[in-house]
Amino acid sequence: MSELKKKDSNYSAFGRWITYREEIKLLDCTIRDGGLMNKHRFGEDIVKAVYQACVDGGIDYMEFGYKGSAKIFSRDDFGAWKYCSEDDIRKIVGDNDTSLKLSVMADTERTDYHTDILPREQSVIDMVRVATYIHQIPAALDIVKDASDKGYETTINLMAISTVPEKELDEALELIAQSPVGYIYLVDSFGSLYSEQVQYLTGKYLRYANAAGKQLGMHAHNNQQLALANTIEALILGANILDGSMAGLGRGAGNCPTESLLGFLHNPKFRLRPVLYCIQKYIEPLRKDMKWGYDIPYMITGLMNRHPRAAIEFNETGDRGDYIKFFDKILDLD
Hints:
It contains 14 helices and eight strands. An eight-stranded parallel beta barrel has the order 1-2-3-4-5-6-7-8, surrounded by five helices. It is an alpha/beta fold. It is globular and about 55 Å long. The chain has two domains: 269 residues, TIM Barrel, CATH 3.20.20.70; 37 residues, no CATH class. The N and C termini lie far apart (58 Å).
């Protein structure tokens, strides 16, 4: 056997990039993550445009927003996509007679999931994603069980893992793996992870996920301009569901761009042009009122492993652009 063939025979299918893995799914969270920039006040025209781009682009899932509790979040303060009522979603998708699956996010301890998440047969929603911090794991697992019992696909998105001690992370992953959840997400909430850390964490997550028959997902933020690279790293190692948003629209530095993932993935079912059209006509015009994407203060919070809220607040002051002042302020927090 030639050296080339020997190398090829030992090369994991996960590492191939010329072909594609059919099991890879792409989830677009433009409206959900972007809603953090405008209190979820997207008009129906933009939401319909993103929906149609996802359908035409061959994307697997579209996330509309949160199942937020109206008891906690006043309807006077937030738009429809903070609550994702069945009626509001159906105004956009009808009965969704397409191959695109629909997703919503349930923030742990911020959703009335017993009442607001209907049985699957009464809903146009396909997947419920549960966002949780490490201290909320028991409550998050209750939401997962409720949604699974109602017939939904489910994920757990464990946030801010760059701040979680390893022993606690192992305990959490063990509990999550024992639950009925379908996907376990690696989430780089602060955009602070580097490729070596993504390699290590992907391996750890996969050990728990594979042993329990779960799939791994990746959700990356772009504080250090590594969202695409880190998502590809997780993909190569075995992550099978990837998050992106159009033009990276999302809170602060934003997310891994959907269009970049479409450009990288080789599955012919994906089509880039419809997404580019949506970005050109509907997403980019939002920049005049909504500021997102790579920025020095967001880079600093990512570098320092901080929540981006400090940079968001700083950018809303008259000191925006005074990077040294922000840098010194963050250092003083230590």
